[in-house]
# Entry
Amino acid sequence: MLVKRSKILVLAPHTDDGEFGCGGTIAKFIQEGHDVYYAAFSACQQSVLPQFPSDILITEVKEATRILGIKPENLILFDYDVRTFGYHRQEILDDLIKLRTDINPDLVFIPTITDIHQDHHTIAEEGLRAFKFSSILSYELPWNNFSFTTSSFIHLSEENIRTKVNALKAYQSQAHRPYSDEDFIRSLARTRGVQIGTRYAEAFEIIRWIIN
# Structure
């Protein structure tokens, strides 16, 4: 898909969103030698279950991205409070513009613009503003998407899916969520694979695709 070594930026409103939305693709691209950067905007400390340390998601995202193969220096963590992104649009846009300047990515992954979670929607909107001169794909999070156009697919191998599953298992604090279940993760990848005649895939909406 990417013919030259490329810089890829994944925008995750919260730690784990990037793994759920495009974890298999991240693993595939790293395997192919591309440089992947992961920016998470909140570790959701206000939402962590009481039996875990409030900063557990910071520890977990570091382990999850390590499993995917992302270099530690390519993990960027911001500290916005969960469910408040709409009040900090300008600060978030400023952060995104700095990422654009520092990384100059060839491809950016964002949540879909129809994602109904307020934080996800904010990152999608401000991501479009900041990266309008880059190729942009939106990833799916079915529990938040009232609509999603499967206009692009990326073939994944069993190894890619296994890496995605193992990365998500690093999030022990999120294991209670129904979409953390390995059967669900594999079933969605199988569904997308069947749509394009392969075993596994992840699907994306094409927001902007730039061909040099």
Summary: The chain has a mean pLDDT of 97. The CA atoms of residues 18 and 48 lie 18 Å apart. The radius of gyration is 16 Å.
